[in-house]
Amino acid sequence: MQNIPEVKLGLIAVSRDCFIISLSERRRAAITKACAAKGMTLYEAKTTVENELDMQKALEEVKAEGCNALCVFLGNFGPETPETLIAKYFDGPVMYAAAAEETGKDLINGRGDAYCGMLNCSYNIGLRHLKAYIPEYPVGTAEEVADMIADFLPVARTLIGLSNLKIITFGPRPQDFFACNAPIQPLYDLGVEIQENSELDLLVSYRAHKDDSRIPATVKDMEQELGKGNQYPDLLPRMAQFELTLLDWAEENKGARKYVAFADKCWPAFPKEFGFEPCYVNSRMNTRGIPVSCEVDIYGALSEYIGMCVTGDTVTLLDINNSVPADLFNEEIKPNYSKYKLTDTFMGFHCGNTPSCKLCADHAVKYQLIQNRLLENGCKPDFTRGTLEGDIAPGDITFYRLQSTSDGKLRAYVAEGEVLPAATHSFGGIGVFAIPEMGRFYRHVLVGRHYPHHGAVAFRHCGKALYSVFQYLGIPEISYNQPAGIRYADENPFA
Q: Does the global pTM surpass 0.85?
């Protein structure tokens, strides 16, 4: 997938000088071997850190190898100061893990006490106000530490991506969509760069791409992707022109940053002036790993990019849109999914920005019904054409969002669920979603914590990694769907 970083992980072992250094080195080598057996490659630093000079030498070694993320491994108790200074001086995400004792038959020279050392390590990380990834249970055998590293990789990829991300916007938020408006100061605090532009800038660039020599090849690619869903072939050259405009803008404006996301204004002026709805092009950009959020939703674009880095796959941005009618639930869902209540279900919808690979086979380019009523008086669609519509394919999903409050405080939510194989009988890119205890989550998190109507959707269960990313970023409030019987803080106990 384009537009997301590749993680090159370094492994540095540390050793307290009153312990046997070979114990840490032997255990480090075992981790490298265990990672290789699981299909993961890493650079094993030859310098074992016992003091601050070793720390500097080890950092020079991993930096020379191009490492952009680190696992610091306590093969024994470990030296508290040098091991935590690694996180201070390394420019990238760092995880800490510690060695479990291997056998009860060798607890004299073979005992490392890393279980104890991890406590002092975490204490020193706190003293220095450093950020680090620490697994849920950070002590293990070589194979278990390799599994911890596997969990760390998507987190590291996301953190590296965010530190090199620029979000490019076009236009202000549409009137009556202030729910997508939020202060951008917290983005700078995260290390994300912002470039805000006018819709006119985009229109001028689009017109400059008229007769671009690459348009025919892009049209052919669209035709192959759509197949029978190519209902408006006359529209494809215009949409290809727009896709090339966005790709060129990204390349020419990312500046010192490596990765780009867009947050574009897509109505009400856009379709009439450009001659189409941008939804299908947005879906194709998402497939490339370049999120384009609707309605200038900057935090939506940020959330999408986070999901792409975590999963290595495309994502989408949907309205948390409408309730599932009781008759549809009783007839098509309840007989096959008795574990869900009606209030566990809802429909996620957007006009047509979901990538085609995440829709059912009968998807097609259509027209935006709501905009057609608003802008073309419900007549034969012309410039309101360009949405990619179809039911979203069933499967596991994670609904999530990182958002700023109106006073500039970051918060996030994560909830795992699934898209059900139930026909929506509706329009747009839409699906029937089921999330356990969604009704309470909707009331006490989405409504109660003042989240906007847009949510990002990753097409697998990845709550563990997302939660870890938000923790590493220092997000003070991370909500999730509480199981039945566990109250939210503001939940009425008598309800």
A: yes
